[in-house]
Amino acid sequence: MVLACLVLAGTAAAQVPRRERRFVYGVNAFAWDGYAGGLSALPAHAIYLLAGHASVVGARETLVYYWPITGEYRADWDSLNEPVAGTLEVWQGSRLVREFAPLPYVIQYPDGPDGRSVLYVGAEAHRRYQAFVRGRARYRDALWRYSEARRRYLEALDRAVQVRQRGGRPQVPQPPPEPPPFRLYSTEVHQGFVLDLPPGRYRIRLRTPQGTLRPESERTVVVFTHRRGGVAFTIVPQRRWTVPERADDGGGTIYARRGEVLYLQPQAAREYPDLAYARLLDPQSREGRPDGWRWVHTAPITRARLEVVGPAGRTTVELRPYRVVQVPGAALGYEVQAARRGQPADFYGFSVTAEGPLRLRLLDPSGRPYPGSDRHVRVPVTAPLFVLFLIPLIPLTLGAAVVAWRREQLEAWRQEPSGRPAGAP
Amino acid sequence: MGILVARRVIPVARDRWLRWPPVAAMVRLDLLTALTSLTPYAAAAAVLALAALLLQNDLHRIREDGLLVRGEPFALPLAAAGFLLALVLATWAALAVARDREQGALELLCYGPVSPAAYLLARLVGLVLLAAVLLLVVLGGFALLSAATGLHLGLRAVLVLLLMTGPLAGAAGVGLAVAGAVRRARPAVLAVLGLALGGMGLEVAHEVLARLPTPDFHVSPVQVVRWAAFLLSRVTGWALPFGYVDRLMGAVLRGDAAQALPAALVPWLYAAVLLALGTVALERTGVRR
User: Fold this and answer.
1) What does the domain layout of chain A look like in residue ranges?
2) Contact (Cβ atoms closer than 8 angstroms) between residue A209 and residue A102
3) What burial class does residue A340 get, using C-beta atoms within 10 Å of its C-beta: 0-12 exposed, 13-18 middle, 19+ buried?
4) Which of A51, A141, A343, B242 could form a Cys-Cys staple with A225, CB 3.0–4.6 A?
5) Measured between CB atoms, which of B66, B71, B137 is closest to A251?
6) How far apart are CA A376 and CA B5, in angstroms?
7) Residues spanned by the domain of B224
8) CB contact under 8 A, A396 and B41
9) Alpha-carbon span B249 to B259, nearest angstrom
10) How many domains does chain B contain in total?
11) Exposed / middle / buried, residue B50 (Cβ in 10 Å: 0-12, 13-18, 19+)
12) How far is B39 from chain A, CA to nearest CA, in Å?
C-alpha cells in the first residue's frame, strides 16, 4: 500500500511541468478571423505577421513551461506577467530599419469574444476601454433594474392569480422589457509594440532603457502577404448542412448529384503561404507546408448576384436568407429551408439546383463580374461502376493481341525455308 | 572557337562514341521489342485500374454527400501514373542492360561500331519513346475514364501527362546508371526497387516525423531523426525521379508558368547526367559478362 502510494506520488510529481522564468514575446497578430494571440517563448520561435495590417508584440517576463500533451510552450501569466521596458529594434540584414517605442493598446470584440476584433492604439485605446467600462456598468445597472422590475412583475402576477382564484377580475401586469444585450468585449489596456512592416524577413531585439540589449530578446520576424485574391464559395448541400465544401480556387470544379440543391455563400478570399499563415495563428504551430498555399476567407460578400448559365439559359439568382431545421422523425438530419419574413436566418446564400453542367459567376451591384468568381458545376455520369474497371482491360487486350501477332510472325519466320519471314524480300 | 568545335570535335565525337546508324537501329529494335511484349500494356492497365479505383472513390463521395469540390480530379491518378511508370521504366532499363551484359550481347556490340555511351543512349532514347507511347495510352484511358465518370480531365492534366516524359526519362536514366554500376540482373533490379521504395518510405517517414511533438528545451532523439529524414528526403527529392514528377505536377496544375518551365526541363538535364554517370560506370565495370 505504502509502495503504491509512493509510486503514485512519484508519477503525479513527474507530471507537474517544470516552469522557467523567461523573457518572451506575447504576440497579437492580425488575422482575418480576429487577432491571434500567440507566444514566442524561445529565440527559435519566429514571429509571423501580415503585411499591411497592424499587429502587436509585447515584451514580457513570465514563467514558461513545456506542455507535452500538445507539444508546445505555454506561459503561466497568472503567476508572473511583468512588462519589460525598452525599445524594439527592427533590423533587416545589417540595416536598422526602425525603432518602436511601446504604446498602449486594446483589442475589442464588438460582437462578443467569438466575433471580429478591432485594435485601438494610443489615446484611442484608453478612450475605447473607458467607453467599454462605462457601457458594461450601464448594462449591469440596467440588468439590476430589470431583475427588480421582473421580481415586482412576478409578485404582481402572483397577486393577480390570487384575485382570480377568489373570483375577482384581476389586472394582468405587463412584463418589463429586457435590456438589449451587451455584446462588446474588451481586453485591458496593455503596452506593446505596434508593428506594420512591408513584406520581408527581419530581426527584432529589445534595447533596455540602460542602452544594453536584453538577453534572449532576438527573434526572426517574417512579414508576408498574399499572392492572389479572388472569390471563394462555401457550399452547403440541402440535406447535408453539416458537411459543407469550400470552393476556394477559381480552377476548382463543383461536382454535385443530379437534382441536388446547393447553397453558395460567397466570401472575399486571399491565398497565403500555408506555413506562414499557420505560424501567424500560432508561432509554435507544427502545421503548414513550406511549399503549400492556403485560401483564407477575409469577408463575406453581401451585395452581389449570381449569374447562372446552364442548359435552361442565363438566369440571375439573388442572395437570400436561409434557416437550418432539424428533420423530424428517424432521419435525424438537417435540412436547409428558406427563412420566412420575421424568422432569423442562419446564413445567406445563393440557391442553385444541379440539373446539368452550369457556369457560375458573381456579379457586383452594377452587373460587373467579380474577378476570380467563375465556377463550373458538373453532374457526374451515373453509369454502373464496373464500366470503369473495363477500361483498364483495353490496353491489356491490345497487348495480348500484339503479343499473339508477334508470335505468329515468329512462327512463320521459323517455318520459312529461307529463314526470312513470309512476304520479306 | 565555335567553328573549330563544329568542324573538328563534333565529327570525332560522333565517329568515336555516337555513330548514329547503329544507335538508330538499336532504338528501333528496343522499341519494337518493348511494344511487342506484354509488360508495357500491363503497366498501362495497372495505371488505369488504379485511376479507376481513385475516381470511383470520388464518385462514391458525390453519391453519398451530394457534393464534391475538386481542382483536378485526375491529380491523384496522375501522381500514381508517374510513380508506377517511373518504377516500370527504371526496372526495365536496369534489367535490359544487365541481361545484355549477362548474355554477352553487350560485349558483342562493343566489338562492333558501338561504344558504351552509344549503347546507353540508344537504350535511353528507346525507353523515352516507349514512355511517350505509354503516356499516350494512359491519356486515352484517362479520356475514357473522364467520359465514363463525367469527372473533368482538364487541359493542365493533359499537359502534365505529356510533359511527364521528362521525369520518365530520368527514371530510365536511374535504371541505366544502376545497371552500369551493378553487373548482375537481379541485384540491379533489386537496387532500383530499393531506391524507389526507399525514397517513398523516406517521404512517408518525413511526413510522420514532422507531426510528432518534441520539446525544444533539450535535443530529443525525435528531433535528430526528423532532421535526418528531412535532409535525406531533400536529397532524394533531387536524386530520384519521383520528386521531379511531384514538382512538375504541382507547377503545371497550379498554372505557375514560371515554375512549370524549369520543372519540365530539369528532368531532361537529370536524365543526361544519369546517362553520363551510367556510361562512366559501364566503362569501369566493363562490358564483358
Assistant:
1) 16-225, 228-273+290-378
2) no
3) exposed
4) A51
5) B71
6) 56
7) 2-285
8) yes
9) 10
10) 1
11) middle
12) 8
Q: Helix, strand, or coil here: A160?
A: helix
> Where do runs of H (alpha helix) occur along chain B?
2-4, 10-16, 20-35, 39-65, 75-103, 105-111, 116-149, 155-163, 165-181, 185-210, 221-239, 242-254, 257-285
Chains A & B: contacts with CB separation below 8 Å? 141
Helices then strands, each counted (H, E), chain A = 4, 26
pLDDT tens digit at each of 425 positions of chain A: 444 544 444 444 445 678 889 999 999 999 998 899 889 988 878 999 999 999 999 999 999 998 877 778 889 989 999 999 999 999 998 999 999 999 999 999 999 888 889 999 999 999 999 999 999 999 999 999 999 999 999 999 999 999 989 888 888 889 999 999 999 999 999 999 999 999 999 999 999 999 999 999 999 999 999 998 999 999 998 877 888 899 998 778 999 999 999 999 999 999 999 999 999 998 888 777 777 889 999 999 999 999 999 988 899 999 999 998 887 776 667 888 888 888 888 899 999 999 889 999 999 999 999 998 999 999 998 777 788 899 999 999 999 999 999 999 888 888 876 655 544 44
Contacts of A269 in chain B (CB under 8 A): none
DSSP A115: S
Determine whether the interchain pair A395/B137 forms a contact, defined as Cβ–Cβ distance below 8 Å.
yes
Closest partner residue to A255 (CB to CB) among B151, B210, B214 is: B151
Block residue for cell numbers 509512493 = A6
Q: How far apart are CA A357 and CA A378, in angstroms?
A: 5
How far is B91 from B106, CA to CA, in rounded Å? 18
Instruction: Name the closest residue on chain A to residue B73, using Cα atoms.
Output: A253
Question: Chain A closest CA to B88's CA: distance in Å?
Answer: 16
- Helix or strand run (H / E) with residue A401: helix A393-415
Our measurement of the distance from residue A246's CA atom to the centroid of its chain's CA atoms, rounded to an integer in Å, reads: 12
- Within A194-285, residue ranges assigned H as helices are 274-281
Residues of B whose CB is below 8 A from A260 = 66-67
CA distance A349 to A346: 10
SS3 A186: strand
> B70 to chain A, minimum CA–CA distance in Å?
5
pTM over the 0.80 mark? no
Q: Can you tell me the distance from the alpha carbon of B83 to that of B151, in angstroms, rounded to the nearest whole number?
A: 22
Cβ-nearest to B62 among A239, A291, A380: A380
Strand partners, A235: A245, A264
Q: Return the ∠ at Cα B230 (arms to B228 and B235), rounded to 5°.
A: 95
What is the Cα–Cα distance from B32 to B36, expressed in whole angstroms? Answer: 6
**Residue B195 distance to chain A (closest CA, Å):** 24
